[in-house]
Amino acid sequence: MTTSPDTVVTAAAVPPGPGDAPDPGSGGRDRYLDLWRAAALVRVVAYHVLGWIWLTVLFPAMGLMFALAGSLMASSLGRTGNSAVSRRLRRLLPPLWGFAAVAVTLLLVTGWRTAPTAPLGWGELVWWIFPARTPPVGGQSWAWAYNVVLWYIVTYLWLVVLSPVLLALFRRWPWHSLALAIALPIAFRFNVVNVGGYFNEQATNVSTYLACWLLGFAHHDGLLRRIPARRYAVAVAALAVTGAAWVLLVGWSSGNYDLNRVAGGNTLWSMAFVATVLRFRPRLDWLGRIRPLDRLIELLNARAVTIYLWHLPAGVLAGALLAPVPVSGWVATVTVRLGAAWVLIAVAVALFGWIEDLAARRRPALVPARVSPARTRPPRTSAASGAARSAPRIAVAPGSGSGWHRAMASVVAVLAVGLAVMALNLWPGVTTRSPDPTARPEVTYRLSDLPMLVEGAPTPSTPSTPSPTSTTVPATPGAVTVRGEVYPRAVLTAAPSRLRVQPPAGCERLRAVIDVGADDAEVTFAVRADDVTVFESGVRSRADQAEQIDVDVTRASLVDLVTSSPSGGAVGVWADPRFVCSP
């Protein structure tokens, strides 16, 4: 990649954040930044649909999205003053309200009857209207899909509301502000700063991504382009090494490399990645010649809010619909799962994407119109340029500094790939899991509460609470007594049979007690994660004691509980099966 001469970036050169869209007459869009934002959105979808933790360290998309949104917010404030806040909220909230109308109605109709446990009770629903906190959902096993990703919308809203003050402070003390923003999440991590109370989670999230938001301010004002190449490269490399070391230390001790759970290290690593991306300004003339790709990037940017809001419910629904479909092989499983999710996302975009047009005061359209690429302008003719001129100037180092830039990008890329390899536990001869991992809080999902598909079971003819000696499999889970102990959520399956279920996102373990449900039968139990056997019991009979199993199903899209019997007609007892997940 090559860099262009130092120029002030105008509003036309910055892609939108949540709820943003190009303003009429802005002169088009910067395809380089649009390309990164589209890639970040695709990465977010892949992470939530497939559960690939390694993607978070290979490509810290959330930090990049906040930085690009911060750059555009600085541009809007320069053009329209504090009214930019209301304009950003106007573009953000209507798509959220459309999503809320469907989500809350669905949750209420399907049995949400208990008030949220938070202080406001049913009053917590106000956060579906103005998301200063993550809005609540019901207790259904799938309800989490409708609010677990809304932390980003909440954090974005807070940063938008705070931006007039933040930008004024940044332009007065740019580097001091940026240094303080980098230190803040570290202070939160070590409890030097502790907001506590009702908005503690929101304060923590804002502190985590504040530095990336301010880096967007610096990008808009042209400060990043005026730092000498050697100084810039050394600073970014230092951030990258420190952030990567922090992530590696946490991952090594806990076995969890999810960047979203590495407070402090998340900010440093995201900053290094974002600073590398924003330093370059390559020409993308080739992109215009690949019209399908160019148009896809444009559509992803034009419907980013709708895609973000609906992608997780679409992914969960895709998994449920695909549960009965036999798919073998890793590549086929990933392709089918992602393909189905994107088809459902496209349906959601067709149904609700027009709300983004109304929010931006454009004519509603099923497919957004094309937007021309950014046109070159004299930098001193825009309001944003005047704002940038008021910011402190830094002398430009002689020469292009391309060697320093290549070295900087190489360091970040090598560290990103290294962290991803460690997250996959693929480093030869090295395990990334500590023998004494730090205890973490857990969330449990009962298998009986999740959508299940049982193949090979006979039609039930007994009550839903059978004796384990019965050879008939119940249609729904029920209570059984195993070796004198009652299990209220047991699942009985015929042998041979296969029970297929999609675990909730973030689930790492499957725990259950297995036993044979007839005195004269033999049963083999197996657990398969994405068609790979991760547990097999061997042949068991009633003479064997019941066995507690604890199986690793991390990153599994589908889990199969398989029973087989050499004689047939046997019953396998999965007593109290449950998925254990990180919160």
TrEMBL record:
Q: Which residues lie in Low complexity bias regions?
A: 1-14, 467-477
GO MF terms on file? acyltransferase activity
**Which Pfam families does this entry report, sorted A to Z?**
Acyl_transf_3 (PF01757), NPCBM (PF08305)
Q: Which organism is it from?
A: Plantactinospora solaniradicis
What is this protein identified as?
Acyltransferase family protein
InterPro entries attached here?
Answer: Acyl_transf_3_dom, Galactose-bd-like_sf, Glyco_hyd_98_carb-bd, NPCBM_sf
Where is region (Disordered) located?
Answer: 1-26, 454-477
Which Gene3D superfamilies does the UniProt entry name for this protein? NPCBM/NEW2 domain
Q: Which domain of life is it from?
A: Bacteria
Q: Which UniProt keywords are present, listed alphabetically? A: Acyltransferase, Membrane, Transferase, Transmembrane, Transmembrane helix
Q: Which residues cross the membrane?
A: 52-75, 96-115, 149-170, 232-253, 300-323, 329-355, 407-427
* Positions of the Glycosyl hydrolase family 98 putative carbohydrate-binding module domain: 447-581
